[in-house]
Amino acid sequence: MPLVVAGISLTVGATTPTLKLDETVAQYQPNWDSLDSRPLAPWFADAKFGIFIHWGPYSVPAYSPKGTYAEWYQYWLQERKLSGNGKFTGNEIPDHHVSTYGENTSYYDLAQQFTADLFEPDEWAQLFSDAGARYVVLTSKHHDGFTLWPSKEANSRGFAWNSMEVGAKRDLVGEFSQAIRKTDLKLGLYYSLYEWYHPMWKDEAKRPTYVTEHFYPQFKDLVNRYQPDLIWADGQWSMPSDDWKTPELLAWLYNESPVAEKVVVNDRWGKETYKKHGGFLTTEYESGELHRVWEECRGMGFSFGYNQNEDIADYTSTRALVLTLIDIVSHGGNLLLDVGPDARGNIPVIMQERLLQIGQWLKVNGEAIYGTQRWHKPVQWSEGDREYKSDDRYVSGEHILKLTVDPEPGYATKDIFFTRKTNALYAISPKWPGNTLRIKDFNLPKQGQVSLLAGEQILSWKNEGKDLVVNMPEFNPEHFRAEHMYAYAFKITAKNE
After folding, report:
1. Per residue in 256-274, pLDDT tens?
2. Which of 145, 152, 181, 387 is deepest in the core (most CB within 10 A)?
3. Which residues pair with 282 in a beta bridge?
């Protein structure tokens, strides 16, 4: 039976397009109209929660001022520039580098210390699975050009610049891929189109050669070797997609590659494609929503790569991370949450703790997250000003607390988040509602049912005018684990189950 909203019959659910998996495979043309017509594999929109991993030679210094990206260490060092949340002179990284490593040590020399000697891929995979993630994205190559697999093209700058020959002496992508394939997680690989200091890239006249002789064969090698479920492109902003020839590359990916029928890609394929073209759209340290399948990526602190300069005050609390996930999912998006291992392959304990705590919440409340869709009203607001303003470049992970449980005077709060499935509506409250939970402009038929997912309690309710009022049980913290109290999820069905 459909739910009823303000007296109007509502069918909860929608048809999701699926890929053709029969012998007749669509032939996509190298233009965005054709490429954007390809249906997105349904698993991605259902997954909701993924793990991002930034790991490479930048994990050796693992240093940048608070509010900036440590994985940009080489660029900050050589350009004497620095940007992020705060004001900087540009000398911060060069001064640190000289005082730590000396004037004669280059960024390339640091890769020898990228040993990965404590990297245990099966342990990583188990941690991400326990966190409740459904997919994982590893940086196969960041903007420094160092590859975590034995790439022939990586050495075209005149010296070895890959993890099989330098530092770890291991095929890290290969080992990671094998470990992920043992789980139910989907395998994603991040790949940077450009490289800051590749000789062909630095010479603008040779950039077409960089595209055809470096980027193209390297990208195809990565896909053919590891056959990822997802490709997360980046570093696209310096040229339009026609110069990158990415429409031609994606036509190959969709028509001829070994992952043609399954692969999911993002929107970073040229300076004009961001938030416009590709399989799904992306945001980064933002607060908002997009109106196609989308994904927000952010770190637990302000850096994607491990930054030893960050302390406990810089790490987002688990409650804020859970509420961020809920907020994003209610608006139809996924959260790609980053961890930054150190150079030896350790994932910092605070990151492990955050992941496991999120996983504990999802074990109880995941029904309201996985496989859900955006309801017509994603959020129920309180009265007050909804426009929180900040001059920061990157939105803090704790920002969600001001929007929910710790508002400033005069500002509104997001009191209830909503998600839906075909036969159920989910209402997620950031805090214990008190004696009653009131859902505005929503009525249930007489045979409807409301339950609290934590403890699977059936709750009494009544329609009061245009609103649904749910009677809450007496709160007993002994009935909940601490991780279950980050938010409270209610399942609403049109009939008793």
Report:
1. 999 999 999 999 999 999 9
2. 145
3. 295
